[in-house]
Each structure stands twice: as structure tokens, then as C-alpha cells.
Amino acid sequence: MAEHPIAVRRAIEAVSHLVDPEPPWQDILRTARDMVGADSGTLIVFDARHNLLNLSSIGFSDACVADYQNHYYRCDVLERDSRLSPCGTWLDTATMYQRGQLQRTEFYTDFMVKHRMAQILSLVIESNAVMHAAIGFQRSTVDAKASGQLQSGGVARYFRTLRSQLVQREKALAIGWRSIESAFTDVGEAVLLISKDAMIDRMSTLAARYLDDGHGWHVRGGRLRHADGKMQALFESHCLAVARDGKACSLAAASGWGELFWIDISAAPDALNLIGGRMLLVRMRRKSAFAPLDVDRLESVFAITHAEAAVLAGLATGHSVEEVATLRNASVLTVRKQVASLLNKMECSRQSELVRLASLL
Q1: What is the pTM of this model?
Q2: Where in the sequence is the domain holding 162, given as residue range(s)?
Q3: Are 143 and 260 members of one domain?
Q4: From which residue to which does the signal peptide run (predicted)?
């Protein structure tokens, strides 16, 4: 493998865009492949259960992509033998396996040979509780010196740059997450960042409290789960649907007498997506039929006085005008006047309509 300065420069220019919300992986793979001198290049991402999350490739035929996605990812010897390898580990079929050893594997005989791959070199670029990802290069001939050459000179500088950009992307993701967590916590909502198969990458402090209180939703094996099998199946189907078409979904799950969790599932912003995979944002709100309404919020939303908001909160809780008057140490006449003012300001004709509007908050 000869090192070409122009190819190295183009590859470094492409990889500098890894910090973009949507990195140009096709350009990154093409320039990296050309720099390495391989026949094809791939970005392959697996989840924590070793399911294929994403395959991006340059130089693969449609048949090769289909074969890998439909079956051969399950017997990928490099993925299997690198699951515990840290980021920065280089893998090379020419040095990891004796020729006879590799040739006895299904992956080699039925996939590599069919698609004219004699050697695969792969660099682990992410390895955590949520995913395992590698950028790989496939050659039609074996070069025993290839892996050593990838770790020296301008090519090695390129891969150091790639890892550095991935670190920067992770830092930007952390900053974006803190902003989102703060915004939702301020309005009383728990939030989680999960993969399409419900593996949790991040969760807010409020979400951690919700998942630790024994009311249905919990974490098991790193995944967000519900104690009820039907609810779990519905949640998983919603996650797959959102990952597929990007349209938000919602569901509600009972969490006790008069209480429920309202769940909103949406596609995460591009800046929160991990390597090569769409992430999902899960918002949780706990609703209780017995929880008092926020008087300050009622006042702000409906542009009413604080006293009127307190009366509205009492009515929405189920109290009569007389009971609200008693609770507020006010006369029934005063409360009736405040109800009349509420009907006028909120453009309602009946007291039941006031309660319905208030309950929407």
C-alpha cells in the first residue's frame, strides 16, 4: 500500500465533517478507501445484542449488501472476535487467523469468497453499552504488511484525526443532551435517549427516579421495559415505527390508582444521533387525577388573575363553588363572581368547559 499525499489530504478533509449533525459517510468511506488502496470500505454498527444497526458501504455491490444484511452479519468473524476490543483496535484477517482456520468459517467460504474478498482490515471506532462500530476495508488480494502500514505515516495521522473527530462529536452530543435535559426537566418531563430497540444511551435525573419507583417502567439489560407484556410490545412497535418513518408516537400506561405515565416517542435531533444510527427521544410525564393543578401556570396560560386561577384549580380538582369558597375563606358570592369572570375571559359558556380546559394542562 503506497501512501499518496493527495489521497490522504482528501480523506482528512472529508473526515473533518464528522462533527456535522449528519456526517457525509459516503464521502468519508470513499476517500478513506482510496487512501488505503482497498477495493471497498464499510461502516458497520451493531447494537448491544449484536444485531446489525447500520451498514454504510462504498464499493459493495447490491448483492453483497443484501447478503450481509440478510444473513452474514450473524457470522461475521471480525465482529464476533472484537466485541470486547476497545476503540482504536485494528483487526486484520491476515494476521488474526491462520489461512486454514479462516477458510473453515461460513463467513469466509460463503461470503468473502463469493464477493472476492481475500483480506479485511477493520478499525474499532466505538465500543460501549449501546453499540459496537467499526470502519472496515476489503481487499481482493492479501497484503501481509497492510495493517502495519495503516498505523504509520500520513495514513496513521488520518485515523488519529478520525478518532479525534469522533471524540469531538461525542462532546457536542453531551452538550446538546444537557440542554435538552434541562429544558424538559424545567417543565416536569423526564427524557431518555434510546436506540430503536430501546437500549438506553442517556437519561435525565427525573427519568432515573421514575424508572426506580416500581410503577411499571424499568431498566433491564440496559433496555427500557414495562412490566406488562402487551404494553412492552406496543412500546417496541412504536419505537420501530418512529425509527422507520420519523413520525412521533404516543402511548399511556397506568402506574397506579388514578395515575398514568404519558409517553411521547420521537426521532432525536440529528446532533444526538450516534454513529450511523438514528436515535429516539422518549419523554415521560406522570399524570395523577389527584394532583393539584399549578395555579401559577393556570394564571399564565389563561391570562387570569391569581385568585381566579386558584378558583379554577379548585373546580378542576372536583370541588363545588361552595367548597372552593370554604377552602379559600371567601364568600360564595365572591367565588361566583370569579367564576363568571373566568367564563368571560376563557370564552366558555359552562363551568364544565372551564374544568375541561384546565385539565388540558
Answers
A1: 0.68
A2: 5-170
A3: no
A4: none
